[in-house]
Amino acid sequence: MSTETASAAEQVAVPPPAGWEEARSRVYAVGLAAALPAVGRPLADTDGHTLAEPLTTRTDLPAFPTSSVDGWAVRGNGPWRVVGRVLAGGSPAPLTDDGTTVEIATGAMVPEGVTAILRVEESTRTADGRVAGTPRPSPEWREPGEEARAGEELLPAGTPVDPAVIGLAASCGHDTLRVRRSPRAALLVFGDELLTSGPPAAGRVRDALGPAVPAWLRRYGCQVRPADVVGPVADTLPAHVAALRAALATADLVCTTGGTMHGPVDHLHPTLEALGADYVVNTVAVRPGFPMLLARLVDPDGRVRFVAGLPGNPQSAIVALVSLVAPLLAGLQGRPMPVLPHATLAEAVPGRGDYTHLALVRLDRVAGTAHPVRHVGSAMLRGLAGADGFAVIRPGSTGEPGARVPVVPLPLLPGERSCP
Description:
The protein has helices spanning 3-12, 20-33, 163-171, 209-219, 237-248, 268-274, 314-332, 382-385, and strands spanning 18-19, 38-42, 50-51, 55-56, 66-67, 71-75, 81-86, 100-104, 116-119, 123-125, 131-133, 141-142, 153-155, 176-180, 185-190, 194-195, 205-206, 229-233, 253-257, 278-282, 284-287, 293-298, 304-310, 342-345, 356-364, 369-372, 389-393, 404-409. The longest helix is centred in the C-terminal third of the chain and has 19 residues, at 314-332. A hairpin with a 4-residue loop joins β25 and β26 (369-372).
């Protein structure tokens, strides 16, 4: 081998690819170690953030006995003489005399001394104005602490905040929550061959990732502004270095598309070297999507930022998103490592030898089955558009019909919950 050939080989030498499961664990760990700082925010400003500490209730829930119905709060046996009315928001006097009642509204505090509540629709009035009827045997009010006791932990730290969590926090008496903010993300699109409008032609292809990746990132809880999407970036090293340096000035995570190999115009690796980045993962033993990477940069002040190199082929780029970006973002937000659901393969899915195979599937959530879809080449998006996620076929195995396999779900909109 000549000196020139040896030098070129040394320049492109990379360590063996990380196993897919190992890569997920590794990027989650570095994300969690760099979890975004906790801040206090008013309830109305917490949607899409993540609880930085457990949510506990400040009082018993409910805090006092609360009527479940509209009707009559009675004491003793009837018919009952009406001595007043209790509306929600009031603090009533005790009911001290047998044979008396107060009209009560749903949600109102039950007076001390009440022995039963008679539903209004099951009551009648006597000629002398008293209330008659037979209360149901079970209490028609909620007892203090029925839902939770003061100080009880309702949700753990790491829980995503959605409208249901906000409502629960308000019912517990909270005005603010300690949360981790949503990560800020940016996208750099590499490739002079890309068109940003119109149909592909004359050797140039349409950029499918520039419009799509920011939407995926938002579904993982990121903030991505239109100004944070840049490209196509010119296929020169100075242009790559300048674009990545500018994006890192404000972003916690910068995703790039293309340039993750060592071709004549692949400048991502030299750019990372020029900026002093270190690799967390450099290639993953997964198909499609093998040449994905995650790198970390640490500022002198300790601020940590990440660069996720997504392959240029569109489906491979999405495999990199679900494989590396999803667990990284979970860690940055202080959320638990995503747990993969399982499904039963309805059809055979081939293995990929020593590599993990992520195979696009459509889920039948009623039957609990996963059905492979068509049009799943690494450069194709047609299959992805009709899929719910990726079935995981582990190295050295094949997916036989009836096998239970993990499934990496495609992300939902913030606040959405997947169907069982």
